[in-house]
UniProtKB/TrEMBL annotation:
The keyword Metal-binding applies. Belongs to the peptidase M14 family. Keywords: Hydrolase, Metal-binding, Zinc. It comes from the Bacteria. This is Peptidase. The keyword Cytoplasm does not apply. Residues 30-297 form the Peptidase M14 domain.
Length: 304
């Protein structure tokens, strides 16, 4: 895609005002139920997991936020953290985290204390949005003093565990709606022109450029490649405008950009991306890929 989309909110070349953000918010509607589709699945895991409500989002409708702490938790063991739903519209990240928690393997819980935060942005889940109601991206907001409650509430919750977290895998999707809605909306909000329209067809990883851990990333790609296809590079040897550092892997500066994968100082971190709109993918296949990524990440670190 080369032509620039126009967006119905804002003035071309000018960042949005608060009125534009309010206009955007007024156009959002609830399209699915966080309580029915996520919270019920969280509560169904109570036999093996301690369910922790770590905050509530302060919106017109209050959304409780949940973390799962495995009941085989033992003091002194390293922590493996799995997060999903930073972007609420990315369904397989949320349901992948829940599926991982439902079938967590004994060997994993024997080597690690496991912490799962399945849906960081429930308003985004219900309205199928990348942003929160204030048109802020939670996945660019993970820094102390953040005005984005999805990010700050998680930062506060994770802080007591942070020094013990050895591994963090953050589960995401890249979808066709990135081009039809979210990239045009971002360009309009910032008053800029978007030039990158690449959507990779397949699974890929975003490593943290400050702690890339190439062998760790490769192990995940190898494992997920048995479940679903890995995204090929574009004609520029890139994915979403970033240079490929190895097959299926690009790098971002996690902490500098305020990404969720910069949440902790864990040495082993990555962000997954699946492509649910691929003709080669299904909803279940995408969930299975997320579970395979989390399992292989933990298995790699456990074997060190």
């Amino acid at each position: 895609m080369s032509e620039q989309h126009t967006y119905p909110i804002g003035i071309a070349g000018q960042p949005w005002s608060s009125e534009h953000r309010q206009q955007w918010q007024a156009q959002q509607t609830v399209q699915r139920s966080y309580a029915d589709e996520v919270v019920t699945k969280v509560k169904a895991l109570a036999d093996n997991w301690d369910i922790i409500e770590y905050g509530q989002l302060p919106y017109e409708q209050s959304y409780p936020l949940f973390a799962l702490k495995h009941k085989q938790w033992q003091k002194g063991r390293p922590i493996a953290l799995v997060t999903g739903g930073v972007h609420g519209y990315e369904s397989s990240g949320i349901h992948g985290a829940l599926a991982f928690a439902k079938q967590v393997e004994h060997t994993q819980s024997a080597n690690f204390n496991i912490l799962v935060v399945p849906c960081i942005s429930p308003w985004g889940y219900e309205t199928i949005n990348r942003w929160n109601p204030d048109a802020n991206d939670p996945n660019r907001s993970f820094f102390e003093g953040s005005v984005v409650p999805e990010a700050q509430l998680l930062l506060d919750f994770i802080a007591p565990f942070s020094s013990d977290i050895l591994l963090h895998i953050d589960l995401h999707e890249t979808t066709d709606s990135d081009n039809s809605e979210f990239r045009p909306a971002l360009a309009a909000r910032e008053g800029i022109v978007n030039h990158n329209w690449n959507i990779p067809d397949g699974f890929y990883l975003v490593a943290d450029s400050e702690r890339p851990q190439a062998s760790f990333q490769r192990a995940i790609i190898d494992a997920v490649g048995k479940v679903t296809h890995i995204a090929p590079a574009d004609e520029n040897n890139q994915l979403i405008g970033a240079d490929l550092v190895q097959p299926g892997v690009i790098e971002y500066a996690g902490r500098k950009l305020g990404l969720c994968m910069g949440l902790t100082p864990a040495p082993y971190v990555t962000t997954t991306e699946v492509y649910p709109d691929s003709p080669q993918a299904t909803e279940q296949n995408c969930i299975d890929a997320q579970v395979a990524a989390a399992n292989s990440a933990i298995a790699f670190v456990a074997a060190l």
